[in-house]
Write a structure and sequence with these properties.
The structure is a single chain. By secondary structure, the chain is α/β, with parallel strands linked by helices. Helix content is about 40%, strand content about 15%. The protein contains 13 helices and 8 strands. β1, α1 and β2 form a beta-alpha-beta unit. α1 packs parallel to α2.
Length: about 280
């Protein structure tokens, strides 16, 4: 089985949107998809066959004050309005709804990764549990700590899946995939260094100490998983699709030109997939 992982990365996830749009244009199908954070939204639109859908979210809707901004923070305590993204815009009758029936009918498997805010452990929500017009799993996966309060789903509280399992390659292999396409939104040999994570972790520690630990150590988790993927690529079992540069784009950067450039990179770089699948 061949699986695909999209690691997301805020608005940089437009790169993965470009990769999946190329796949839709060229009839590329995967047996299993795992999406992290914004990558989970890319996977959903890909499985639904909705080319261009996610591009609009990154390079149009993301510039709206309803999407993210200080006004949201003042009113709700969360900078990013996940309900606006995945309910207002995405449900039937919304401005850009998910084609739920098409996604459900797609035979490919799907898991959406989130981080349990109380335990700091990765949680994998399966496609079978997604209900029409109820996309709380996507909200949980995209819930950036510090910028957002943890998102409630059932009895649980969740943060972004990129904390606990930023490149879920071991999960993909455990689901039976023997080949993997891994979509990154940083150059493929860009190992992380400890940045602001320790500062953010201290802010999070009082209410969510276990999530704070994985936030503090996220750079090490990412590097360990990236090393696994690089080794798999050397053995011919994985293909890393990653931009050669992301310019000055950070996870929530709003810059039409740079976002367009990153989307085009995704379209171009995705051409490598054809050769990998044909080997």
């Amino acid at each position: 089985m061949t699986g695909v992982i999209d690691v997301g990365g805020g608005t940089r996830g437009i790169y993965g949107a470009g990769v999946f749009d190329w796949c839709l244009d060229n009839g590329i199908k995967f047996d299993y998809c795992i999406g992290v954070s914004a990558g989970s939204a890319n996977c959903v639109s890909y499985l639904a066959g909705q080319k261009g859908r996610n591009y609009a979210f990154y390079n149009d809707y993301a510039f709206r004050p309803e999407y993210m901004g200080l006004d949201n923070l003042r009113k709700t305590g969360s900078y990013i309005n996940l309900d606006y993204i995945y309910t207002t815009l995405s449900v039937e009758g919304g401005e850009n709804p998910v084609d739920y029936e098409a996604m459900k009918a797609n035979p490919a498997g799907l898991e959406i990764v989130a981080t349990d805010a109380r335990t700091g452990k990765a949680v994998y929500f399966p496609k079978e549990e997604i209900r029409k017009d109820h996309y709380d799993f996507l909200k949980a996966s995209c819930c950036v700590p510090i910028f957002n309060r943890p998102y409630p789903v059932g009895e649980g509280l969740y943060f972004d899946g990129g904390l606990a399992d930023p490149i879920p390659i071991r999960r993909l292999l455990a689901k039976g995939c023997d080949r993997a396409v891994v979509i990154l939104t940083r150059p493929k040999r860009a190992f992380r260094k400890p940045g602001k994570e320790p500062v953010w972790a201290r802010l999070l520690k009082h209410n969510y100490p276990e999530a704070a630990k994985v936030l503090r150590d996220r750079w090490q988790i990412y590097n360990t998983e990236l090393q696994i993927v690089l080794e798999l690529e050397r053995s011919g079992k994985a293909l890393i699709i990653a931009p050669d540069s992301i310019g000055s784009l950070k996870i929530l950067t709003q810059d039409h030109t740079q976002l367009d450039q990153l989307y085009e990179k995704g379209l171009k770089d995705a051409e490598k997939i054809r050769g990998f699948l044909n080997d």
